[in-house]
Amino acid sequence: MNKVLIYTLILPLFFINAVQISAEDAQKGAWEEEVVYYVLVDRFVNGTSSNDQVVDIDDPKAFRGGDIQGIIDNLDYIKGYGFTTINLSPIMKNAKKGYHGYWITDFRKMEPSFGTMDDMKELVKEAHDRNMKVIIDFPIQFTATTHPWTKDQNKKEWYKPNNYQFPNQPWLNEVSLLDLKNKDVQQEILKTALFWLENTNIDGYRLKMLEDVPPTFLSSLSSNLSKEKSDFILVGDMNGDVSDDTINTYLDQGTDSFVDPSFVEASTDVFSTFGESPKQLYQRFLNKEATYKDVTSRVIFLDSQETTRFTRKVILNKQNPITRWKLGLTYLYTTPGIPVVYQGSEIPMDNGKDVPDHQTSRVGGGDEDLKTYIEQLASIRIKFPALTKGDLTFVDDNGAMTLIKRTYEDQTVYVAINNDVSTKTIAIDEVPDGMQLTGLIQDNIVRKQKDGSYKIALDRETADIFIVEEDTGINWLVVSFIGVVFGGFVLFIIALERKAKKNNN
Fold this sequence. Notes:
This protein is α/β, with parallel strands linked by helices. It is 36% helix and 21% strand.
């Protein structure tokens, strides 16, 4: 009896430990296996007031106090959701009110309101101790109009004409743009890139840039950084629409991956309301697969510091944010690419405006159901390589329900998303004999029907991820084990009641 109770208590611990081990293995792996949490440093958490000299919480365009210490204090919070990489907004020294990081006045100094270089070193060390990576946004062409270089007559040729407009990022309309075709500029940016790597041991850069950056410069940048850290990550992030041919050129020159700028609008249009079929997204992906060099290296997200909040779009459509986020995240975590989740999405936050959200993030206190769901998705993505490396095949659809499969080596995973207003079913006949489909989110089990088909049914506005495994029928060992535990518990209660009656008599 005591042994049974002990086994009942410790079995879940074996499962938890197995998940943690697989998570750590994934965090040490390739870039396409990562799950990224994006932090807008000034608007995350104020960890210490010692660097708040320029903070003005009454001015929405001023510094609010978020700093590196605030991130260190919340590493366990971020890791708890299953995130394996933290992407920080630019941390270089900025001009007054440059909380966003693009009004750079010194590329090789830390923004004082964020903390010190030692704080940054500690953040990277603490993240690495938790098997997490840290990458930072590096605006390689953006400086403040007050940067000392702008007043140096010997550096006139370092800058481009200011004839660019950034309608979705108004803070970029107040910058001076470096010309990376200039060899001297290239050397300064290369030295800066090496400086931050050597002094903080970061794991990568997200290069914020325009489309005119010479591919040969990126090749040189990649080569020099790789000599210092062989697995250093370079992510390209260009403003505006970028052709696949351009992206492929940069991928050929050593960039590990690129932000897919067209992903946001297409995916949010589908998942911010019901009735829209995910089929159109998979069709779009399959079209892109034909022209994009490496689809698994796409950086993808549902919203960011540069877009309207996904939650805002959902509310405008008079939908339930939790339901909509679950469907959107299922797609984000299971379609080819590296998923990025913007801070506060786990709450889920809404700034009440159809503009990018730069509110101070509310850490903790989010929806527990959504938190559990995000944890589930992260664990599943880590455990099954088919979801990070596998080929994608469209299987079938029924109304606004869609079924796809991801295959990698001998592993097959099915992803079913029902964005319809009613329960939908999709039948397939490609599952091998003697196998079953086991749902990992809803604990669904789909077995072969008399007609030879496997019928996957989902309630409205739900999703599930299925693995193919051996159909063992009813697991009598487990059933009997549960029976023994339950029976023993009942006998234990009866014995206590009898003892109580005996004492009363």
